[in-house]
Structure formats: C-alpha cells, structure tokens
Amino acid sequence: MPICKSEEFLSLIKHKNRILGLDHGSKNIGIAISDEKLIVATPLETIKKTNQKHDFFKILNIINEYCIKGLVFGWPLNMNGSKGPRCQSVMSFVKSFLNVKDIPVFLQDERLSSQAVEKIMIKQNLSRKKRSKVIDKHAASWILQSALDRFKKKEY
Known about the structure:
Layout: E1 3-4, H1 6-13, E2 18-24, E3 28-34, E4 41-48, H2 52-66, E5 68-75, H3 85-100, E6 105-109, H4 113-123, H5 128-152
Parallel strand pairs: 1-6, 2-5, 5-6
Antiparallel strand pairs: 2-3, 3-4
Helix pairs in contact: 4-5
C-alpha cells in the first residue's frame, strides 16, 4: 500500500472505520485513535521504542485490537516546509512498516504539535515529569485531529 493523498486515503479506509495517529519520535511513539465517524481523536498510549521488530509488534497489536483501517503519521517538516533528517527517519519507519502490514498511510504536517500540546499542559499546571509521560500520545492526538479536520472538508 502506498503513502496516500487525503482523497485516496479516505476512499481506502471507508466510512465507519477507525484510524490511528502516530507521533514517531527518537525515544517514543505516541499513539492516538479516532472514533468510527472520523470526527474525534483520542490519545491512546505511548510506546517506548526499543527495536523496530518490537515497535512493529506493538503497533500491529493495536491495529488488530481496534480493527484499524489506516494510519496517519506525523510528518515533521522544518518550519520553512523543507524535509530534514527527522522526515527521513519517519519515512524509513513507514516504508519498513508497510513491508510488514499493507495498510493505507497518510502523512500529516506536525509542525509545532508537541509545542502546542506542551503549552496546554503547562497552563494546566502539569509537572514536567507528568508531561513527559503523556506528551507523545497527546501530540499524536493533535496530529490525528488535524488530519481528521482536514478530512472533514473532503467528501466520503
């Protein structure tokens, strides 16, 4: 399955199916899940990265448990819109994952997602320790919600 543009992604996942949002970082992978109507993203969990085989196993278990039909990966563009080393890392992970699981993938611009989530958490007076435990899954939720909002503008 190739990496899709929004219209193709929507046509492949169909309506009434859940999708995952993933924030692929250097230490963790934040995971968020949509509702079946593709309206709301909810933080689900954070996977502590160990090795690719283990990371894939954890993601595949979530896909099977929740009958996931598509994945939205955060696409970490530089502020000027160019692709940097983090994009290469995400693309490498996505391509390797697609060799294991044939599933539609959409790349969603994630610029400033972690900073936006952290700002909200700071306003809620969460300690640095508590923020570090949940920021990745909340960033994944921010990324997924951005994609869902974008998809709402498209026809099913």
